[in-house]
Each structure stands twice: as C-alpha cells, then as structure tokens.
Design goal:
globular; six-stranded antiparallel barrel; Thrombin, subunit H; 0% helix
C-alpha cells in the first residue's frame, strides 16, 4: 500500500514500536514511535519539541543500544508526526583498481 506519491510500499505497524532520533554529532536525542516504514523512508510520532529537527539530517536508532540505525533527512512535519527519507551511501560504480 503506497501513500500519496511515494514509490516504495509502506508497512504500517500494528503495535507501537519505540525508536529514537539522534543528531549526527550525538548532542541531542528524541524518543519517538515508528508508525510506518518502507525501504526509502518512515513516518514517526515524536515525543517532545521538534526544534532540534531543524538540523535536517540525523540518525534513526532502531535499537536501544544504537547498533541498528539509518541515516535520514527530514521531509515533512505535520504536528507531532514527521516524515523522513533514508539517505543511502553512494556506491562507486567504477571498477576497483587492482594493484600490480
């Protein structure tokens, strides 16, 4: 089921799945709930103020220890809900150089 003009299929979670947002530099952290997720992004309900999200880029911590995470950017804010897009690392498509 795709919402709006999204290209990737979203999976809506039946139970409240707690996650955290953390600044790239690690100076701030916000608790939130994962509402739905796809391969390219997610929708979250954030606890507390959203002023720290002005950074536009942050980590979505999927585990309590921070071992499972995705780097993301802010797409939209609607009240306490935010939409994020996952940032994928650019893969070098050139052939690797093999030393002789």
């Amino acid at each position: 089921m795709a919402y709006g003009s999204r290209k990737a299929e979203r999976v809506r979670l039946e139970t409240r799945y707690p996650v955290n947002l953390m600044g790239i530099d690690g100076t701030w952290r916000r608790s939130c709930v994962l509402l739905d997720v796809s391969q390219s992004g997610a929708r979250l309900e954030v606890d507390g103020t959203l002023d720290v999200l002005r950074a536009q880029e942050f980590f979505l911590l999927l585990s309590s220890r921070g071992l499972a995470y995705r780097r993301c950017e802010l797409v939209r804010v609607e009240g306490a809900q935010v939409g994020v897009r996952f940032i994928e690392e650019k893969k070098d498509k050139r052939r690797p150089i093999i030393p002789k």
